[in-house]
Amino acid sequence: MPKSKSHRATAKRFRITRNGKVLHRKATGNHMLTKKSSSRRRRVEGMTEVGSKAEAKTVKRLLEG
Predict the structure, then answer these.
(1) Which of 10, 32, 33, 50 is the most exposed place for a label (fewest CB within 10 A)?
(2) If residue 59 lies in a helix (H) or strand (E), which one and from where to where?
(3) What CATH code would you report for 8-63?
(4) pLDDT means over runs of 10, the chain (65 residues)
């Protein structure tokens, strides 16, 4: 039986914390930043938790490897 591999596209986009929460990067923080206000840019930096339990379950299944 070969080793099971984690889904690489998912591994690049999500992170699992020690408590088992699934984190992802916030949207709209990559380009056209000059027209966005400083507060808006700060709001979209960093990571946040995946909202739906079903999506988190799917991501965890893809990452187990």
Answers:
(1) 32
(2) helix 53-63
(3) 4.10.410.60
(4) 94 97 96 96 96 97 91
